[in-house]
Amino acid sequence: MTSSAFEGARTVKVNGTSLAYCEQGEGEPVLFVHGGTADLRVWADQLPAVGRSCRAISYSQRYSRPNEAIAPGTANPFDPHVEDLAALIREIGAAPVHLVGSSSGAFIALLAAIRHPELVRSLVLGEPPALTLFAGTPPRATELLKLLATRPRTAIAIMQFAFGTMIPTTRAFRRGDDEDALRIFLVGVLGKQTVSQLSAQTMQVLRDNISTLRGALLHDDTGFPPLADDDVRGVRVPVLLVTGVRSPAVFSCLTDRLEELLPLAERVEIPGASHVMFMENAPAFNEAVLAFLRGQQDDRT
Fold first, then answer.
1. Do strands 97-102 and 29-33 pair parallel, antiparallel, or not at all (unpaired)?
2. Reported pTM
3. Residue 221 pLDDT > 80
């Protein structure tokens, strides 16, 4: 997973920015959407596997390598990434597409399906941080108190994530300590065991893209967009929800709620893996995705 992964990448201009993308194979388009502090390199184990039977595509989001970096002090709001994804799908002729997203990339994919349903054929969502189903970012005390009364496990998990991960990460960025910010963020999102097992190449990818996380956290208008229950209920395409058996509790709680709301959802848990299950146990993740895609094809025959 080195910079050589960018060799042969194409670029497409959407919404005033250029996005790099790679693709392998032919057939129904399957587009992979990475999470924060990442780029198209993280899908190195997925493109060959899925590209044997589909048109497998991965891209780097706005500001992620090898695209133009975010300018220092610039905000990195969420909504432009959703519109970039929609524009990319149109520009490369991939609609309707199967979207496979991880973390914030899964949230981007979900929002794309809500806002641009004509572009999406199905969704694979790996632990989207859909916090705004329950509270703002950061959560207000009144929201947490209400949630404690109705869903105490979820409320506690959100508080632990907010006050144990997101707020300390933001503080580290504010004092100019990007390395500590990345460490805090990764431990909170992946868990200590997974962080200790990340390869040097993976860590370099994360460091390469740390400015995207900084831009997302250091500005007041860059939190996750509001998400209403009815928005999720309105998603009428098949959805595979994917979780890691070792993932922090907050992701399981959020996925529980998505499973309740999505009308055409199924769920799978990846053994021996946490939040980046597509890297930690790529064979199991790939098989789950391919089985889901085969199911969509069978349903249309």
1. parallel
2. 0.96
3. no
3-state secondary structure of 269: strand
Name residue, tokens 């098989």: 287
The listed CATH number (3.20.20.80, 3.90.1010.10, 3.40.50.1820, 3.90.1150.10) that belongs to domain 3-134+225-299: 3.40.50.1820
d(C-alpha 5, C-alpha 22), whole Å: 9
pLDDT at position 194: 96
180-200 pLDDT, tens digit each: 999 999 999 999 999 999 999
Q: With 90 as the cut, is the pLDDT of residue 298 above it?
A: no
Residue 158: Cβ-neighbour burial (10 angstroms; 0-12, 13-18, 19+): buried
Closest CA to 208 of 58, 74, 36, 45: 36
Give the residue extent of every domain in the chain: 3-134+225-299
| Tokens describing residue 182 | 């990345």
Instruction: Give the pairing type, strands 97-102 and 120-126.
Output: parallel
- Closest-CA residue to 3 (of 47, 72, 60, 52): 60
Report the C-alpha gap between 297 and 301 in whole angstroms: 7
Q: What is the pLDDT of residue 4?
A: 73
Question: How far is Cα 117 from Cα 245, in angstroms, rounded to an integer?
Answer: 30
Examine the pLDDT at 37 and tell me if it is beyond 70: yes
Angle (CA) 167-171-69 rounded to 5° is 100
Q: C-alpha distances in angstroms, 93 versus 58, 119, 146? A: 14, 10, 45
Our separate counts of H helices and E strands in the chain read 14, 8
Amino acid at 178: D
Which string of DSSP letters, residue by residue, matches 180-197?
HHHHHHHHHHH-HHHHHH
